[in-house]
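Give me structure tokens for this 134-residue protein.
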Amino acid sequence: MATPGGAEPDPASSPANPSTVRSAVRTLLSFAETRARLAANEFEEQLLRLLEIAAWAAAAVFFFAIAVLLLALFIVLVFWDSNRILAAGLIAGLFIAGGGVSALMVRACLAARPKFLAATLAEFDKDRQRMGKP
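Here you go.
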């Protein structure tokens, strides 16, 4: 079909050209696949990191608990004849202080953890900037 100027329209420059739409869809699917893989990798890394931390924390708690109980028993036995109640009270106070410090450390570690899926969200922001904000 001829245009008023007599020239034929170029089918490749048409905005509704199926190959252009197909190419755009392929690009969007590629972006989505890349971001999904990145998210999955980050999720797996965080899970492995948490499992490793949990295993080491459990081992540390076990060994320190045994050591602290034996130390407490030793101190009470040393002061058995003179001030066993004072010794037991001081040991209990140390346990309470240690528990408080530990709770504060857990709180600090949780506050300092990296943002979940930070790299994936950064890539989405880059994609949004490249494509122009809506």
